[in-house]
Amino acid sequence: xxxxxxxxxxxxxxxxxxxxxxxxxxxxLACGGVFMxxxxxxxxxxxxxxxxxxxxHRTAVAHDLPVASPRWVFESFRAQKLLDVKDFSxxxxxxxxxxxxxxxxxxKESVAALATTxxxxxxSRLESGFTNVLIAQRPEGAKYEAAVANDIPVVHVAWLxxxxxxxxxxxxxxxxxxxxxxxxxxxxxxxxxxxxxxAQELVADLPQIxxxxxxxxxxxxxxxxxxxxxxxxxxxxxxxxxxFDGCVLYLLGFSPQMKTVLQRLIRTGMGTIYDNMVVRxxxxxxxxxxxxxxxxxxx
Length: 299
Hints:
The chain is α/β, with parallel strands linked by helices. The protein has helices at about 20-30, 55-60, 70-80, 105-115, 140-150, 160-165, 190-205, 205-225, 255-270, 290-299, and strands at about 10-15, 35, 45-50, 65-70, 95-100, 120, 135, 155, 250, 270-275, 285. α1 crosses α3 (about 70-80) and α7 (about 190-205) runs parallel beside α9. One of its GO terms (biological process) is mitotic G2 DNA damage checkpoint signaling.
């Protein structure tokens, strides 16, 4: 019965337009539920929102409370039964307005595509009162200065990949860009440079890595078969190993230099790289923040 549809539930909202909030309130109260204006985590069972990032939203996520679109209330009312709230959950970046500064064109296009796919709106112009976060290459430039002046978080692109990896809105403070003089900590751009150097060193070591891998495989086979395979790894000219055999990878968000390094690593491991995202054929999508996963596989 509709009169008891939301019985036992206590809902609160954040960021809704007044007409939408009032409609949600009326339905919840008419169907036996409780609607609160103030968010009390000891009483609330659900948060209704159309965008992520508000204080109420972050608090709800921290307390593992379901966050759903107003559509959950409306569609449940129409169906005369409580629908699964998971079907109305917000996307990771739902409702955010994202801007970039100083990124290479390829990376900027990748960021725009990822942000849009996961619920954000991408805008090339920074606008106070509209832009929610600025993704920048370095803590400098007109956009950076304008963002700081208007209390808009300025983060490294790793923030975006962290959001997608964790499937929640990552804390901007963890990836904030500040002038080096204000912090003794290593900036994300310096971290990226160090990781790129590590990758290049790994590529230089590939011949020896392949030999060690082959030797290890030969020893395992010899132990299983109780006899030597008779192959001399030192005399082999092959420069491949089968770590990624059968894998079809799509690289996303990497600079041309890093992409070249990764292509060498993946192809040495007998993996296949696609330039376009073909959902039915690609088995793995590798995004910028996780490239060390491949390097670790070779260790």
